[in-house]
Specification:
single chain; 183 residues; alpha/beta; Rossmann fold; 2 domains; 8 helices; 5 strands
């Protein structure tokens, strides 16, 4: 059985999820698991897909970065799939781990992808540092502190912290920060 897994990092990436869904169905995936969560977040659909696949199945993803967050994580996924005698295909790379060449290429490409990500993050940190030094980057504006008066007013009206958080689109922890800022 062909089992597909699709992931986007944010809820705004609807088109990306649709494109993955289309590609996975086009290659014949009979079952799809999909989620919208960051690669470092909890990935329930990936866990469900890994639990579902059986010997002889193939897990298919459109891109390597949709599956694993690092070479180490990729290795863990591949090891778990191999233990269950399940193959892995990565569509955009034409990669299939059912043979030795595919396994080798997966490891090489996984290492390159991790290197590329680390370089991107390094450039991002350098850009932020430069912008801060030039006074152009201030970070995001603290949302909870700007609503401190509103938080206090709602609490004084008898609303619970959880209700205030939901009404203002904040976390409960942010309510505590807003109260601390108001003092």
């Amino acid at each position: 059985m062909l089992v597909g897994y699709a992931r986007t990092s944010t809820l705004e990436q609807v088109a990306g999820l649709e494109a993955q869904r289309y590609a996975l169905r086009a290659v014949g995936c009979e079952r799809l698991y999909e989620e919208q969560t960051s690669s470092v977040g909890v990935r329930e659909a990936l866990k469900a897909a890994m639990d579902y696949v059986r010997e002889g199945d193939t897990l298919i993803v459109t891109k390597l970065d949709r599956l694993a967050r690092s070479v180490r994580h990729l290795g863990e996924i591949v090891d778990a799939l191999e233990a269950k005698k399940v193959g892995l295909r990565v569509l955009d790379l034409g990669l299939d781990t059912s043979n030795a060449t595919g396994k080798l290429m997966l490891n090489v490409l996984g290492a390159v992808a991790q290197f590329e990500r680390e370089m991107m993050l390094e450039r991002q940190r350098e850009g932020i540092a430069k912008a801060k030094a030039e006074g152009k980057y201030k970070g995001r504006k603290p949302k909870a502190r700007s609503q401190a008066l509103e938080v206090r007013t709602m609490l004084e009206r008898g609303l619970k912290r959880k209700e205030v958080a939901e009404a203002l689109g904040l976390s409960e922890r942010s309510i505590y920060r807003a109260l601390a800022a108001a003092r």
